[in-house]
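#struct-queue
[09:14] JT: dropping the first one here, sequence first, then the structure tokens:
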Amino acid sequence: MKSPLVYLTAVKLKNQLKGVLKSPAKLLYGVFLIAMFALVAFAKNETVGGNFRSISELGAILTIFYTIMFLMVFVTGSSSNTPMFTLSDVTLLFPSPLSPNKILFYGLFRQLGVSLLLGFFLLFQYGWLNSVYGVGYGHLLLIVVGYALTLFFAQLCAMAVYVRTSGKDNAGRTIRLCVYGAAAVYIALAAFSCRDALPLLSQGDYEPALTAGSAFFSTLPGLLFPVSGWISGIVGALFTGNWLQLAMCAVLILAAFAALLLLITKSKNNYYEDVLQTAELAQSAITAKKEGQLAEASPKNVKVGKIGLGKGLGASAIYYKHKVENRRSGVFFISNMSLLFAVIIIAFSFFMKMAEDGAIIAVFAMGTYMQLFSVALGRFNRELIKPYIYLIPEPPLKKLLYSLKEGLIADSIEAVLIFVPVAFIIGASPLDTVFCILARISFSLLFTAGNVLVERVFGTVSSKVLIFFFYFFSLLVLAIPGVVLGVVLMTFLPLPGFLGVFLGMALCNVLLSLLVLYLCRGLLQYAELNSR
């Protein structure tokens, strides 16, 4: 093979495939994902009479979603330089007699492959996209490719800014402020353009209001937001056959790609030096995760503010420690990731309000799906890989309850912040709203108990893929009784709305969670740390 970079890429792909085939955990997880996708793809999702919603609404959803993801990745990457190279790449490629530009292209296209993998979760949205908008498999593939291109360009923009402003903190901060300003202007234009939808909402004309509100994001004014708007315009044009829009957005994307490459390749700063430290930090984080330890690296900027716990004695100090950590990394009890999920769920409710009979169930289902990830990434799991929580001379059950207290309070606040606005948007009854919030909190308790169960039973398993599989399987088993009881109560009891569903899930989830926590009360008695 003539090109060493092509050879290196082919060998890496071959070795990764061999690793999956030789690892029972990865193979089992892969089969599980394929089976779940098949279940979603071949399920019956029919719209009565074939009356699909306007495809312009889907274009508006894609524009908003792509823009949010673009801004998140860009802001994060431009300040911390998202790693495009691994430490093995640095060791093999940087000393080699290859052009830096060729190595840069290798890193960029390798990152595009990673972005495609990150878009895999979008495949599981086929069911509702097919039933609501008539989206086929080809359309879904275009949405995934658009998502991958959005992440790729966000990382490319972040690298261009980082390379050009390396060592100049004020310059990097100025560019990020300009991006925030552009986003604020875009939001103001969107609000101004959607002003005609407000009178329609007040009159109860939801469908015309939604059409008027989505028009901005699916037409040229809204599609002119850099990169994310252009990519959404390409995907929407392929859906509708608008070749003029396709050509215009494609030219803008190609011009942006050329300009970004020119900025990076013509930079006076050597990007080798810029990515070296990032690759080392990324490798140390990977090694720490494999060994069950914390990474040694610390963030450059920490929002300290008030220091000290102020309160807490013994096991209760864990709760106050979590409060301090949340104050420094989020807004009150709510993490930045949870706030983002809340915005996405509330935005999703605008598009579900037309389903008068099942809007709140659809929003609740999506919110519960996203809640899986927010609970899994909570502070409790991070406490278990540190020795301190095991050394506190308190009963293990007391330590367990205090370590979970912060997460439950945060999830309760989050449930209110999400479903009160959702209730106003979709017109849900106050009774349904209250019990929906209670069911949301009960699922938070259930997912937390599932975390504890997995750590208690499978905590010594070294394979993270296998742990991830056990986590989802355990939560599925724990959630089934509540869903069944909810359906039974709704079917056989004369309760208004969806009160029976939420009541059944809440009761069953709380009882199962308390049982699991009691049975796993000895989790914090002895440390089973993996220190290989």
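[09:21] JT: and here's the second one, same format:
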Amino acid sequence: MNIQLFLSDRIRHALIMAGAPDDSDAQLHPSTKAQFGDYQANGVMSAAKKQRIPPRELAERVLEHLDLSDIAKKVEIAGPGFINIFLNEQWISQEIEAVFIGPKLGLTPVTPQRIVIDYSAPNVAKEMHVGHLRSTIIGDAMARTLSFLGHHVIRANHIGDWGTQFGMLIAYLEKIQHHHALEMVLSDLEHFYREAKKHYDEDEIFAQRARDYVVKLQSGDPYCREMWRKLVDITMTQNHLSYERLKVTLTPEDMMGESLYNDMLPNIVEDLIAKGVAVKDQGSVLVFLEEYQNKIGEPMGVVIQKKDGGYLYATTDIACVKYRCETLKADRILYYIDSRQNQHLAQVWTIARLAGYVPESVSLEHHMFGMMLGKDGKPFKTRTGGTVKLSDLLDEAVERAGQLIRGKNPDLNETDLNNLIQAVAIGAVKYADLSKNRTTDYIFDWDRMLSFEGNTAPYIQYAYSRVTSLFKKSGLDEKKIMSPVIIQEEKERSLAIRLLQFEEMISTVARDGTPHLMCSYLYDLATRFSIFYEHCPILNAKNEQIRQSRLKLAWLTAKTLKLGLENLGIETVERM
């Protein structure tokens, strides 16, 4: 059960019955302090302001219409009009039982949607660097979460596999007579790309040849298409090695490059002109948007076709969203792209809706994110000031984790030790990013991310292994725990309520694209379990009934931690 949603509906109904406006919101949230109950509703304050009556007076009327006897042991008015709700221990126990026996921790089934998630988007002919990390792991966490909840998720790896850079590369490979592209590795391509760019900028004859190759490529020339395919394959083969290391669920079948939409572009331009959305202006084709104005207050013109007939990113992205809506039948489309692309996407979506390609029922969402910064507050770089390659970052994480873990686990065999090091290292890198609000920049700190204390992956992984160790000592598995949960101690109560809040947390993450909230939840759950473990004897409980009750809470904690981390794309370990 989503407790927050359940209580919010009840309170909203009581507000309306008490005379508040129909659009009143309960403004319910978990209480921050025990004296304020388990949940607190603040919606009376704003509703009373609209009605111009004292908030406490409205709160008293609300309580007359609010029946929570099936879930709460006490409901009280606090301060000027806050409503505090104290959950009933018997109800908590019953709900824990439902979670214990139910699939997916008893989550309420969702109405499935088709959701397209655009994430990662590496560059062709370049190795992935740290700048690709946030899009890749945040997008993948959301793909995992939405799939887990029961939605049909379509992963879209939108790579830039079309355009001038390919004409440059093909022209340069021809210049150096390097036709055996399959023998190349990605580092060769990066070198060739730099040299090709230099020739393109300095040699007009070379530049013209490169532009000619772009035209040939877009026209379907067999040689150009063959070379293009090899360049893309070399790049993506290397990228998928990074995906495998990161435990990212993207596959080669999820690649949807710009080339996919190339054949759609001429028809889209013609259609936009025919519908009066676009106009011809001095040889180019533009869409003038009233919503976006230039410095002198005139509608901004978005170019969708240049004078020479070439298309722009805007044209491709209009085709892209049209394809996702009409062909993939998306109900919701999420873009995990950095914040600098916000206006570009907004303009593209405005045009797509004006043209009727995307109905209002389809949700278009830009889940933007900030940058990874070094301790100096500047974009994270190597010591020499260069871009940090993703593979190098992961190598260093494994090396640092190995130094921490090897000495603490001298009796582990080499295979198990290496698996543990990989799980901790990769988990630490991902969690350090995922635990930060995606809309903000964050400081990359090796020492903090690999710490076994605080809000880190190793801390939560250790909490999970602690429970598995407890069960090994108990000699029981969860199927043999027959006694119901008994809530007697405050520490039991606190842990049980937090376990029951998993559904409302994962629902919020799925709605808003905010995996950092799941990180905060898992950290808080692990902390509450640690306090419970210290104050409530489990294996040495005073009787078998309490022993099994506490083992049930411990098992649910481990199950919740594991599912939460899996939805973030982070592995758990049995021993740590």
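[09:30] RK: nice, looked through the second one.
[09:31] RK: The longest strand covers residues 284-293.
[09:31] JT: good to know. The mean pLDDT is 91.
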